[in-house]
Amino acid sequence: MNSDAETAAPGLGRKIMLGLGATIVALSGAIGWLVGSNGSVAISEAAILGTDVTIPVTPAAVALYGVAVSTLLLGLLFGLVELASRLEGDEGESDVGR
Questions:
Q1: Which of 33, 68, 86, 92 is the most buried (most CB within 10 A)?
Q2: How far apart are CA 56 and CA 50, in angstroms?
């Protein structure tokens, strides 16, 4: 009996994850642009995560910050998924020869 993993197109999951990641990064930039556009009326600088590091509240700066943070977090998450997938694949190959 064939499992779903054997009948799926190779690399389809990776394409879906990259497409989803690109969409999330683009949305982060768009939302950052909106927040920067509206927030610059009230404040000129914002502290990052409550630290002494600040960024100017302009549309481009907040959009760039959103893109950078979402790219970093998604890259870390996707890297961990890739690592788990490789580790699981290595274990599966060692069981085949038994």
A1: 33
A2: 15
> Has this prediction a pTM greater than 0.70?
yes
> In total, how many domains does the chain have?
1
Coil, strand or helix at 56: strand
pLDDT digits (tens, 9 = 90+) for 5-64: 566 677 788 898 899 999 999 999 999 999 999 988 888 898 888 889 999 999 999 999
Decide: 28 and 72 in contact? Cβ < 8 Å: no
Domain interval for residue 72? 13-92
Q: Whole-angstrom Cα distance, residue 17 to residue 4? A: 18
